[in-house]
Design a protein that fits this description.
Order of helices and strands: HHH
Distance between the termini: 46 Å
Number of domains: 1
Structural class: mainly alpha
Largest sheet: none
Shape: elongated
Strand content: under 5%
Oligomer: single chain
Radius of gyration: 15 Å
């Protein structure tokens, strides 16, 4: 089961990179939305760090504390992005 979780995290790296680049491109085009791009950049760094820390421990079947912390931090950032998007939508109406 740990192997499946590792490969899912590894597969998330290019998806997060594409999302981060898309957010960065939108920030450059519009001149706004920099916070969204920065948050995606942080998520990308945390995802890469989590996968890198997790790789050597795959054979042991353990999950390093840094990898768990990176996933929890990513979830926290996603929640912050959701709240920011919700507040933005409330301001428009």
């Amino acid at each position: 089961m740990h192997g499946v979780a590792f490969y899912a995290l590894l597969a998330a790296v290019p998806a997060v990179a594409a999302a981060a680049l898309g957010a960065y491109g939108e920030a450059l085009e519009r001149g706004s939305g920099r916070l969204h791009a920065y948050l995606w950049g942080i998520v990308l760094a945390l995802t890469v760090a989590g996968a890198a820390v997790r790789a050597p421990a795959l054979a042991e079947g353990t999950v390093p504390a840094l990898a768990r912390s990176a996933v929890v931090a990513c979830l926290g950032i996603f929640c912050a992005q959701a709240v920011a998007g919700f507040v933005s939508e409330l301001r428009r109406t």
